[in-house]
Structure formats: structure tokens, C-alpha cells
## 1
Amino acid sequence: MEFRNPQSVKNPRILLLAGILALSAACQSTPKTYVSTFDSVDLNKDGRLSKEEANNYLVLGVFDVLDDNHNGELTLIEASADKDATIASEFKKRDKNGDGVISRAEALDFGLKQGIASKVFPQVDTNKDGYLSKKEVHVYYAAREDNPF
Ligand SMILES: [Ca+2]
Ligand SMILES: [Ca+2]
Ligand SMILES: [Ca+2]
Ligand SMILES: [Ca+2]
């Protein structure tokens, strides 16, 4: 597999913009950080993620991967190192105030509007109680690690 380049871990940047497979993206990049991200988006600290919280989880999981300098804002360069033209227009959609960076708030706002958790949520919520427990998230990640495709 000589074509497998070491930058592949950066591929999640596309997924932020596609906004759907964020969970697996965060997994591929930083498998350990999902726990701290989980806690940070579990706003009501009940140890489980509602759909809204899961949306934030997906957004921030990828956001933090893309935010190379960890300043809480995404520049176009951070979001699109592969210089894909479609990413530039996708970027503008998320940069609501037009200041040239996507803040976490802007990313979260866009993620909620898109309902990006709606596709992944049912797959992760294995007991169908409408919330994601840490265990459910862990199980989902573990399965992804075994089956990257
Ligand atoms: Ca919660
Ligand atoms: Ca940044
Ligand atoms: Ca902005
Ligand atoms: Ca559940």
C-alpha cells in the first residue's frame, strides 16, 4: 500500500465539511480524546448525550482535530489543506460573520442546523433510549477501529 500517505490522518477535515462521518473521523485521529470531548459536550452532566449534545460532540470532535494551532478557530488553511475549491464555499457557509475563521460557536451552530448527528445517532444508540452513553460511544469507536471501512 505505497499510496497510503502519512497525511491520511488529516482526512477528517473533509468530514467536518461533509458533516456526517465526524464520529469515525475523530476516532481515526485521536482515539483517546473522545472521552474528554464527551465530558465537555455533556452540558447537563448526566453522563449521556442527548441528540443536541451528540451534535456538538460530532462537531467538536472534528473541529479540534482540524484546529492545528488549537486557538478555537478554524482558518480556511486549517480546514482545507488539500485546497479543494468546494471546501472554500463550504467554509463560507459556516463562517457566518465573515471574519475568515470558523469559531467553535459557528461550527456548532451549523452542525445543529444540519442535524449531523441524526444519521449517526441511531447507530450509536444501541439500546434506543434516545441518549448516547459513554459505553455506547466507546463500543461504536471500538467497532470503527476494527473496521475502518
Ligand atoms: Ca447530557
Ligand atoms: Ca486554529
Ligand atoms: Ca467567523
Ligand atoms: Ca442509549
## 2
Amino acid sequence: MTEQPLLYIPKTSNFTTNATGRLSYSTMNTLETCERMYQLEHVLANGAAREESEHFSFGHGFGEGVAHYLVNQDKDAALLTAWLAYWPQIETEKKNQAKCLNALNVAFPHLDNILQDYEVVEFEGKAAVELNFRLNIDKTYYFAGHIDVVLKNKWSGIYFIFEVKTTGLNLHDIDPLYKNSGQALGYSIAMDRIVGEKLSSYGIIYFVAQLGKDYTPQIKVLPYNKTLLDRLNWFMTLGLDVEKLHRMAELDAYPKRGNSCLNYMRPCRHFGICGLHALDRVASFVPDKEVYQFEYNMDELVKEHIERIATPEYQSKAAIQDVEELVAATNNNNTYCSVDDPFGLVEDLIEEF
Ligand code: SF4
């Protein structure tokens, strides 16, 4: 009699997320949240890929509608675009197609205000909207991103990555959510090629629909100035994360972060099963078929940024920008900054520059 295996292990099928080595803003967020969650969602064939959700459909619909309006200023067409882009049609009481279109209606006057001072940039004869890029980090991993819109300030000539977001957080000040976020910062690497010149300073605008309990969301527009050094730091962070990914794969060790098991009052969807390892199978490689408009190699970009940052012109410009930010932080009563300048440091710096 042939011996039956104690446990039947199902055949695994190809897995299409990170078996390609593709990283994105959302996969890096998962990695930061919990490494075991990252392994289950992006490395293993027997894990569970990220679920479609109302959050994705709502964000996608709202983002497409906003981008369409910035380019065409046609409300009906923008609403139709948002309605069609709300896909898959997963709806809850808080997030659904009707609320998405309503958020867009509320956003129109704010977009009109933005268009007083900014214009949508053209790239290769078309509006610079929904552009995608690929940043090769090493032989295994690359980072892929999609840029919502690129804008140019009509008066200062400074270029901005415009990123559309939605949040359910009802805080008065949502600045800490976005000020140091790496998302649009990473996306800015494509900017030099879009505008056809090497920019030493540029900006990011987060256009946020803050969804409350009632039917009327609040719209917040959060602009930030960024420098080449910010971008270089983002490359460094990405490089360190990729080093960690290689080390974890080598050791086959993906830590469980217990403090992430409960998030926004909801347990993680892997809770109760993430401790089971007998069925862990690494997914087989699946090539990425997406065509990218821009492709970069990280080692070349890092070298180029270090050279550009080292120039005296860049150094003095950056110092002035730092002083301006410090002054703004000390003057702003709403800030979280603890600088109270007991030794007159800010005044000394202003005099120096
Ligand atoms: S339940 Fe907790 S430890 Fe398990 S994957 Fe989710 S966040 Fe990580």
C-alpha cells in the first residue's frame, strides 16, 4: 500500500504581484507596516494578493475626475470620467460612486482656484497626466510609479507634481500626513525629462478630499517645496529598503509586527493565519508587461544628484531655502515644530544669507 501524505499541499499557480520584483508606493507601505504581511501579499504563491476595495475604486475615480477637469475644465466630462473610473464597483455607505461624484463637485471651485496660478504642463504634445515610470534599483527590484498631473506655476515658473488623495481622517491639520511623504517625491524623478531641463528646485502639491461623516467632504490643498537633496534622500531610503528585502529573502525571515495587527480599529486580514508557515511557497517569476514612458537606473541617478548637489550655487540656494522654512516654522502657530530659537539662530542665519 502506498503511503498517503499527511497533508495535501495544493498546486500553486503563478502569482502576479511582486514575483516580478516590482515595488511601488503601496508595496513599500505594506513592507513598512509588517514584513510578514508583505511576504504574504507579494512574495508567496499561497499568500493572498491585495484585495480590491472601495478605497481603491473611490480614489481612482476621484483622481481621474480631478485630472480630467484640470486639463479640460469641463465639469460634465470630468464627472463622467470619474463615474467610469470608479471600478470595480465596490460600494459602502462611506465610499460609493455617488459620494465620489459629489466630492468631485465640491472640488471644482478649488481646482478653478488652482488654475488661476498654475497650468498643466505639456509633454510630447499631450497634457502631462497619468505618466508612468520605472526606476531600476538592481537586477531584481525596480520601483514603478504613476504621476497624476504635472503643473507649472505661471508666476514663479516652478514645476509641481500634483498628487490627488482622499482620506477618512477628520483632523483639522493633516499636514503631518503628507509633508514628509515619499510618494510624490519619488515621482518627481521624471520631472527633469518632462520639462526638458535639470531642475534644482521643484514642488509637490497634495490635493486632498477629506471625507467626513456627512455628504460634504473638505478639500485641502497642500503645497510643499522640495530640493534635490530630498530626492537623494528618497533614493537612499529606497536602497536601504531593497537591501532589507534581499536580506529577508536570503534568511527566509519576515518579521511579524504585532503593533500593526490592529489598524484604524480593524484587525489585519491575515490575523490568525499569518503564523502558519507549512504552506509557504515562493511564487514563480512573472514578467511585467507594462510599458513605461520613462526608465531610469538608480546608480546613475544617485551619482548625478550627488554631483548636482555639490555645486556652490546649489548649496547656497538650499541654505536660503532652509532658512526660509525655519522662519516659516517658527512663525507658524499651527506648526508642530519645537524650535523657539532661544539663541537668535534664525536671525543670525537670515543676516548671513
Ligand atoms: S496579523 Fe499582524 S503580524 Fe500577521 S501579517 Fe497582519 S500585521 Fe503582520
## 3
Amino acid sequence: MSFITSAALAETGYVVLPPHGDPIDPAEWHDLKYVGWRSSGVTRFAPLASYAGDIECNGFWNHTPPRTDKDGVWIESQTAKAPTLTRLAQEPGANVGRCRVIELQPNTYADAVYNLHQDDNNRLNDDGTGWVVRAWVNLTDDPDSLLILREDRFDPATEIRFPLAAGTRMIVDTQRFWHAVWHNGEAPRYSLITSLTSGPELDAYITAQGGDPHAASIELDQQLVEEAQTEMHRRIEERRRLFEAQGIVMEPPVDLY
Ligand SMILES: [Fe+2]
């Protein structure tokens, strides 16, 4: 398979963009209509673009006819409430697939490590077309929370961590990285997540924005990391036994959102 990928993401698989500086009215995310959706942690989603413009979050490949995560249809009743968020999602000029605001309740580092998953953005994507990646804009100010990325799900030595202050912007190949958020806060965290198609438009945007593929990772206490590893393996084994008792073969966690 040979997809069109972004040169800026080739080396590390991510870029951190300069933060969005202007405050955004929280009404833009609080006033949206949210739906429950399976995800990593306790979450709800407010879609801005979906398969057909309905307020739902299902993967485009689960609809009829199925398609990959491209050509999302903007939901007018939602975008009218969130003009800045809509503009931020469209700003790169790349094709947009799913676009939604995620609401995540506080959790622990161990929760996040257990929640690590790869996205499924490129299911049904045609060979020779653009690889789908994800753009994030953190909406709430969560400087003590971390986006966690791992090349290897079970190896914490491959982990990098980025803090999530208000306006933090990143573009990540979320099908390459195992990822989850440790939301170390008191109130829900809100973030804008947009599926973008790689290609000349995205490359030009990353270059113009000065995307950094070597942003500094936050260090964590080694004991915290080791305890989370132990807890992850304990929970996976617990889940495996539960599934086994029900006659179900457990699949690796692949994200559906
Ligand atoms: Fe994900």
C-alpha cells in the first residue's frame, strides 16, 4: 500500500503547532449537542461533521454505503453554535472526515495507559490517496493533563507526553501511535478532534504554522510509570479472563471514534 503521507510527520509521526492564542467562548463547546459514544475513558462526543450531517459519531465505514474517514458532512445546527471551532477544523485546507468535540472526565495515569489504543482512520482508504491523520485543539486549560503517545503499546520507553494547556494544537498519526489522554483535572476536558487527509494542503499548513516534530516530552516519576504498567497488565488479564468465560476472543483495542 502506498498512501500519500505528510513529510512533516514522516520522522516522528506528530507535530506540535503553536498554541491557538485567542480565547474561545466556552459556549462554543458547552452549547453543542453531545451523544454517548464508546471511547477511551468516560466520554461524550459532539460531532461537527459526520457521515451524512446527522448528530451521530459512527465510523463512516459502518454506514451504507461505507466509506473511509473523508468528506465529512458539516452539521449546520452544530457549526452554527461553534463558528471558531469550525474555522479551526477547516483552517488547514485539507479534506475533513469526522470532526467532533470530545468531553473527557478526569482519570488517572494508569487509566490512560490501560486506555491506549490506535485509531482506525484509514479503514477502506484507497491506495494512492491521502493517509488520514488527526488534528487536536485542546479547548479547556488542562496544563496538568497529558496526551500520551507510545510507538509500542507495552513499552513505556517509547512513550512521549505533551501537556494540554488551552489552545494546544497537535497533528498526530493516530493510527501509528498508541494514544490516550491522562486528564489530571477536576472538571471535564474538552478538545476538538478532526480527521484530516494528508497531502499538499496539510503539508503547506504545517510548514506555514511551524509545526514542531521534536517538541519536548514531559518527564514522569518512574515509579508511577512502573505501577501503571503493572496495573495495565492486571486489567488486560482480568478482561481476558472475563471474555474467555463468555467464549469471546479478545481483540486488541482499536478505537471506533
Ligand atoms: Fe483515538
